[in-house]
C-alpha cells in the first residue's frame, strides 16, 4: 500500500492527506473527489473487461476447440455469457471424455465429490436434497435415483450431476427396486431426444421406458431365462441390448422386434485358471464391456477377507466369431486375451464401465483397468479400489490415498456431460 | 517487385500506410484489392488507431510469405533431397533459422495485456487474418488452460455475474487435491 501511494503521487498524496485530516466523516471535499475518480476508472475498467464476454461466436468456438473437457467446464463457470456460450460442448469430443469417480457426499452440504484421476483433481458439485444412498447406477453421465426410501414411494428419476437437470421416470415396483441390478441409457438425453432407459432387475428381467412413457414395458419374458439372467450384466451397443448371462453366454435383445437371440459365448473363466495364482474357489465378478466396437468379458477375481474383498487379478476374453465348424459352439466364442489394447484403458464397474483411448487422453495409463468398490451381488460385500496393469497383472492403488472401505456408498463412474 | 501502397483508415479517422503485398495477408483486404474497388483509402470502422499499427506490423511480417514462399521452400526440400543432399542441408538450416526467428518474433509480438489481446483478436477476425486469429485465440486459450474459474476471471478481469443463488449452486467448485482432505 505504502509503495503504491508513493508511486502514484497526486492521488496517493490527496488520499493520504484527507485521511489524516478527517479520518471519521469521510465526507471532505478531497476524499469525495478521490472516491468519484476511483469509481469512474472502475467503471471504465469494467466497460473494457465486460467485452470479453461479448466475443463473436466464431472466436468463442475457436477458444473452446483448444480446451479439453474439464477446461470447458471451467470456461462455462466464469460468467453468465460464457456459460451460455458453451452449453453444448459435451457433443463435440465425446471420445475425449474420461469418467470421474463419484466417491463421496458431504453429509452437511450435500456436495458430491468427484475424483478426476488423470488430473489428480477433486471436483465438488453441490446438489441439495440428493441422497447418494438412493443412487442405483450411472449411465451416459446421468445418475439413476429413487425419490425416497423404499417404503415411501418408488418414484425414480435421472439426474445429471453436472447440469443438475432431472428427468422423471415412471415409478418402479417395490420388487423391481429391491432386486435392481443395473440401468442403461441408449444416449444422453441432453444430446439426443430419442433416448431409452433399460433397467435390469431380478424380478422382472429387462424393463424399458422412453420419453413420455407412463409405465415401464417389460422386455423378454424373464421367467424363461431366470436361471441365467439373475446376476448377469447388460450393455447398450448399436441400438441393441447385449446381455451376459450367468453362464457367460451373450444374448442380443432387439428392442424393436423384442427378439432375444443367443449370440454365443459360454464357458466359465474358472475353467481357465491354470497358472494365474487364482484358486478355483475364489469368488469373482463378471463384467460385459464394449471397447472399440468389440465385446469383452472381464472376470475380476477376489480374495475374501472379513469385511471386504481384495482384488487379486483379472482374466480378459474377447468375443470372437467362430469359424471352426467342427466346434459345436454357436456363432461366437470367448477367446482369452493377454492385453486389453496398448492404447486403451478400462474404467470398470457393475454400475457401468467405459473404455477410453489413452492416445486421446494422455493422463490415463494404457492397458490398465481402473476398478472400484463394487458390491458383490450375491454376498453384498464391497470390493476394493485400484488399478490393474493388464500386461503384468500388477495391481496398485490410485495415485490419491482414497480409503476405499470408508466409503458410505458404492462409487460410480460418471462420464461428465451436460 | 515494386509494391503499391494501400491506405487504411481506422475507426477514429487516422490513416495508415501499408504495402499491397503485406495487406494481402488479410483476406478481407485481399478481396477489396482484387475486387478493384480500391478508392484510395480503405475505411476500417471496426479497428481503432490503437490496434491498427499492431495489425499492420503482423501483415508486414507475414504478407510476403502468404503461402507462396513457404510452399516453395518445403516442396523444394522434398523434391531435391535425393539429387542435391548438400544443398538440401543448407536449405534445412536456413529454414530452421527462419522458423526460430519467426517464433522469437511472435513471442515478442504477442507480449501485451488482455485488452490489446481482445482488440487484436476482433481485428484479426474482422480482417480475416487467419494466422493472427490463431495466435490470439491460442493466447486466450492458454490464459484459461489449467486454471480455476477464479483464476480465469482474474486473468481477463471478468467479474462473476452469477446471481447469489447461481453462485451458491455454482456449476463446479473445485479444490486442488491436498493431503488434508478428510474423509469421515
Share in helix of chain A: 10-25%
Report the CATH architecture of the domain at 5-65 and 93-156 in chain B: 2-Layer Sandwich
H and E string of chain B: EEHHEHHHHHHHE
End-to-end distance of chain A, in Å? 45 Å
Largest interface: A-B, 46 and 42 residues
CATH class of the largest domain in chain A: Mainly Beta
Q: Low-confidence runs of chain B (pLDDT<50, min 5 residues)?
A: 66-84, 171-184
Number of distinct helices of chain A: 8
Under the CATH scheme, the architecture of the largest domain in chain A is 6 Propeller
**N-end to C-end Cα span of chain B:** 77 Å
CATH class of the domain at 5-65 and 93-156 in chain B: Alpha Beta
Count of alpha and pi helical runs of chain B: 9
Quote the beta fraction of chain A: 25-35%
Describe this protein's structure.
- Chain B: Residues 5-62 form the SKP1 component POZ domain.
- Chain B: Residues 69-88 are annotated as: Disordered.
- The complex is a heterodimer of chains A (418) and B (184).
- By secondary structure, chain A is α+β, with helices and mostly antiparallel strands.
- Chain A has 2 domains: 2-85, no CATH class; 89-414, Neuraminidase, CATH 2.120.10.
- Helices cover 18% and strands 33% of the residues of chain A.
- Chain A has 8 helices and 25 strands.
- In chain A, the strands form 6 sheets. Chain A has a 5-stranded mixed β-sheet with strand order 21-20-22-23-24, with no helix packed on it. A 4-stranded antiparallel β-sheet of chain A has the order 3-2-1-25, with no helix packed on it. In chain A, strands 4-5-6-7 form a 4-stranded antiparallel β-sheet, with no helix packed on it.
- Chain A is globular, with a radius of gyration of 27 Å.
- The two termini of chain A are 45 Å apart.
- The model of chain A is unreliable at 1-40, 45-50 and 89-95 (pLDDT under 50).
- Chain B has a 3-stranded mixed β-sheet.
- Chain B is mostly helical and 184 residues long.
- Chain B has a domain at 5-65 and 93-156: Potassium Channel Kv1.1, Chain A (2-Layer Sandwich).
- In chain B, α6 (114-127) packs antiparallel against α7.
- Chain B is built from 9 helices and 4 strands; from the N terminus they run ββααβαααααααβ.
- Chain A binds chain B through residues 45-46, 48-53, 55-56, 58-59, 62-63, 66-67, 71, 73-83, 104, 107, 111, 120-126, 162-164, 400-403, 406, and chain B through 114-115, 118, 121-122, 125, 133-134, 137-138, 140-141, 144-149, 152-153, 156-162, 166, 168-177, 179, 181, 183-184.
Amino acid at each position: 500500500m505504502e509503495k503504491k501511494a508513493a508511486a502514484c503521487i497526486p492521488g496517493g498524496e490527496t488520499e493520504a492527506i484527507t485521511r489524516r485530516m478527517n479520518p471519521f466523516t469521510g465526507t471532505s471535499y478531497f476524499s469525495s473527489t478521490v472516491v468519484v475518480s476511483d469509481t469512474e476508472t472502475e467503471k471504465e475498467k469494467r466497460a473494457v473487461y465486460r467485452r470479453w464476454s461479448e466475443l463473436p461466436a466464431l472466436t468463442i468456438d475457436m477458444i473452446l476447440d483448444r480446451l479439453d473437457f474439464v477446461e470447458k467446464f471451467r470456461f462455462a463457470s466464469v460468467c453468465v455469457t460464457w456459460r451460455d456460450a458453451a452449453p453444448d460442448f459435451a457433443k463435440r469430443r465425446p471420445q475425449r471424455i474420461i469418467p470421474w469417480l463419484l466417491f463421496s457426499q458431504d453429509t452437511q452440504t450435500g456436495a458430491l465429490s468427484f475424483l478426476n484421476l488423470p488430473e489428480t483433481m477433486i471436483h465438488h458439485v453441490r446438489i441439495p436434497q440428493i441422497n447418494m444412498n438412493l443412487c442405483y447406477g450411472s449411465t451416459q453421465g446421468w445418475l439413476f435415483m429413487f425419490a425416497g426410501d423404499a417404503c415411501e414411494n418408488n418414484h425414480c428419476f435421472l439426474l445429471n450431476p453436472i447440469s443438475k437437470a432431472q428427468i422423471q421416470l415412471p415409478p418402479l415396483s417395490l420388487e423391481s427396486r429391491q432386486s435392481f441390478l443395473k440401468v442403461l441409457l441408449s444416449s444422453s438425453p441432453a444430446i439426443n431426444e430419442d433416448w431409452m432407459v433399460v433397467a435390469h432387475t431380478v424380478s422382472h428381467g429387462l424393463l424399458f421406458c422412453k420419453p413420455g412413457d407412463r409405465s415401464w414395458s417389460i422386455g423378454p419374458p424373464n421367467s424363461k431365462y431366470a436361471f441365467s439372467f439373475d446376476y448377469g450384466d447388460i450393455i447398450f451397443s448399436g441400438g441393441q441390448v447385449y446381455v451376459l448371462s450367468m453362464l457367460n453366454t451373450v444374448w442380443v435383445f432387439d428392442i424393436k422386434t423384442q427378439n432375444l437371440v443367443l449370440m454365443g459365448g459360454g464357458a466359465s473363466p474358472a475353467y481357465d485358471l491354470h497358472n494365474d495364482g487364482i484358486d478355483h474357489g475364489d469368488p469373482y465378478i463378471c463384467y460385459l464391456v464394449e471397447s472399440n466396437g468389440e465385446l469383452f468379458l472381464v472376470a475380476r477375481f477376489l480374495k475374501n477377507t472379513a469385511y471386504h474383498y481384495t482384488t487379486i487379478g483379472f482374466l480378459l476374453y474377447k468375443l470372437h466369431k467362430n469359424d471352426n465348424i467342427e466346434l459345436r459352439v454357436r456363432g461366437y466364442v470367448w477367446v482369452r486375451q493377454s492385453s486389453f489394447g496398448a492404447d486403451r484403458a478400462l474404467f470398470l464397474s457393475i454400475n457401468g464401465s467405459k473404455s477410453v483411448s489413452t492416445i486421446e487422453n494422455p493422463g490415463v495409463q494404457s492397458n490398465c483397468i481402473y476398478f472400484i468398490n463394487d458390491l458383490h451381488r450375491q454376498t453384498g460385500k464391497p470390493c476394493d479400489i485400484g488399478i490393474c496393469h493388464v500386461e503384468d497383472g500388477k495391481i496398485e492403488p490410485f495415485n490419491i490415498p482414497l480409503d476405499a472401505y470408508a466409503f458410505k456408498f458404492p462409487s460410480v463412474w460418471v462420464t461428465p456431460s451436460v | 517487385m515494386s509494391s503499391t501502397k494501400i491506405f487504411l483508415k481506422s475507426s477514429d479517422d487516422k490513416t495508415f500506410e501499408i504495402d499491397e503485398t503485406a495487406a494481402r495477408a488479410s483476406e478481407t483486404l485481399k478481396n477489396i484489392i482484387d475486387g478493384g474497388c480500391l478508392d484510395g483509402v480503405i475505411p476500417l470502422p471496426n479497428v481503432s488507431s490503437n490496434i491498427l499499427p499492431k495489425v499492420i506490423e503482423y501483415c508486414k511480417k507475414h504478407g510476403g510469405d502468404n503461402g507462396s514462399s513457404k510452399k516453395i521452400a518445403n516442396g523444394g526440400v522434398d523434391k531435391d533431397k535425393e539429387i542435391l543432399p548438400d544443398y538440401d542441408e543448407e536449405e534445412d538450416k536456413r529454414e530452421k533459422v527462419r522458423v526460430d526467428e519467426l517464433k522469437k518474433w511472435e513471442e515478442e509480438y504477442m507480449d501485451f495485456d488482455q485488452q490489446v489481446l481482445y482488440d487484436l483478436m476482433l481485428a484479426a477476425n474482422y480482417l480475416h487474418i487467419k494466422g493472427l486469429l490463431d495466435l490470439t485465440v491460442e493466447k486466450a486459450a492458454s490464459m484459461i488452460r489449467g486454471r480455476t474459474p477464479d483464476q480465469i476471471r482474474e486473468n481477463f478481469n471478468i467479474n462473476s455475474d452469477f446471481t447469489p443463488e447461481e453462485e451458491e449452486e455454482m456449476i463446479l467448485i473445485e479444490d486442488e487435491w491436498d493431503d488434508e482432505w478428510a474423509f469421515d
